Amino acid sequence: MSQKKHKKNRRNKHYKQSEDVKSASDDTRSIAVSAQRDTAYTKVLRYLLYSLAFVPLIVTSGTLFPFIFGKVVFVRLIVTLFWVIFAIYIFIEDKGARSFIGKVKKLIRNPLFILTTIFIGLTFVSAIFGVDAYRSFFGDIERGEGFLGIFYFFAFFVAALLVFDKKSWLNFFKLSLITGGIMFIDVVREFAGGMARPQSFTGNPTFLAGYFIFIAFAGLVIFLLDEKRQIRYIAIGMSLVGVIGVFLTQTRGAILGVLFGITLIVIYSAVRGRGHKLFKKINTQKLSIALLVFGVVFLGVFVATRRNPVWQKVPGVNRFATLSLQDPTLKTRLISAGVSLSAVHPSNGMKKFLIGWGPENFNVAYNAYYNPEYLKYENLWFDRAHDKIFDVLVMNGILDRKSTRLNSSHIPLSRMPSTA
Fold it and tell me: Considering the entire predicted model, what is its pTM?
């Protein structure tokens, strides 16, 4: 009797062990399937955001504004699709939900995110109380901005911070370099064909200059952070292509911005570059000092000889060679700045001073405080100040302008936000 009982207990123990093994196997299989599904969702979300690197190439020739309309529609479609899939993922995956909740908790403590969110909130307030609330909120087809357009960019910003890690950012920048390379080839084609200020797929040389600045930045980021030597060489080459592209557009503000940025980098390297080697051979500090000396000498020669016809043959430089205080473009920009300041002067109402006239309502402010001196130089009508500082100041008020300035002080590459 005792022997039978012992055999029965042994069978029960063996059965229980088998059940435990089966349960553990099921749990492992479930975890593996969940991990695969998690990876699949994350990949889809990242690839959606990667596709936005090619937006500058979109041109819809059959629309009223072919260089704007297609780009706006594609951006909003992709960002909306991202958040729909993201919501589905969070709803069906508890593990994914917990993971992203942790990322959100980390994100909301980031100064850059906080200041950007404040900027968006103040823009929303400006839109509600704008002189034309409908236009402030929805924008127009010509620019595709308004609060809604800005909000979509904010949604992309948050999406990228949630699903991008360092490798993802580098991949996005690499794809952007491909786009930049295609656009540069098109710019060279236009320039060789006799177009004084190429515009490529953007339809506007100023917009194109801004994009080439981004390409120069993207190349620099890849050069500093990527581990593959060949990729780094290509990246620094594309940074140079971006700078050349800015000069080909002959956009003076963008050129000054690039030169100022390069000067700051060179000065920093001259002061802090001791012992650092570029490509393991070139002393960074000595190179930076040499570049500073060259820059000062070149500037002196240019100022002394800027009337020489040779400068008229150098794209970008030619527009500085003829620049004077009587230049019509400079005059109109100064007049526009004066109109902008008058439009938000506290004596004309604290509401306009604090929260502005509303997004996309610069033209209303411009008309209200129009300076007839403008007609001496141009007969075009301003719907923008052609200066981002005054744009934000007039449309969004001093509060939003302040948040923009604070935002720009939190963008050092070494502190780029990341939650992934």
Answer: 0.83
